[in-house]
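Example S7 (structure tokens).
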């Protein structure tokens, strides 16, 4: 069951991120975690939730296996602009 299941009695409050040509496809390697990837691309490991929002096919980061490709929304400011939020999280 995906995070965007609208037939559930309790839909998940996950924001969608529109795909962009600037997005980066990252192939996960053994031992790598979403917080490491967020730190690599955004300089902040706490922004792993942004990466998870961009990849709704996985319910949580532990479902992503080495070799899987994940989409990294880039640049990050584009996401904040889309959601109309301040980037001082």
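Recovered sequence:
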């Amino acid at each position: 069951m995906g995070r965007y299941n609208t037939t559930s009695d309790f839909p998940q409050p996950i924001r969608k991120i529109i795909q962009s040509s600037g997005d980066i496809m990252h192939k996960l390697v053994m031992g790598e975690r979403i917080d490491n990837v967020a730190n690599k691309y955004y300089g902040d490991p706490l922004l792993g939730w942004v990466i998870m929002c961009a990849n709704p096919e996985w319910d949580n980061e532990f479902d992503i296996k080495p070799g899987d490709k994940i989409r990294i929304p880039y640049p990050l400011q584009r996401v904040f602009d889309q959601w109309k939020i301040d980037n001082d999280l």
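Notes on this example. The chain has a mean pLDDT of 85.
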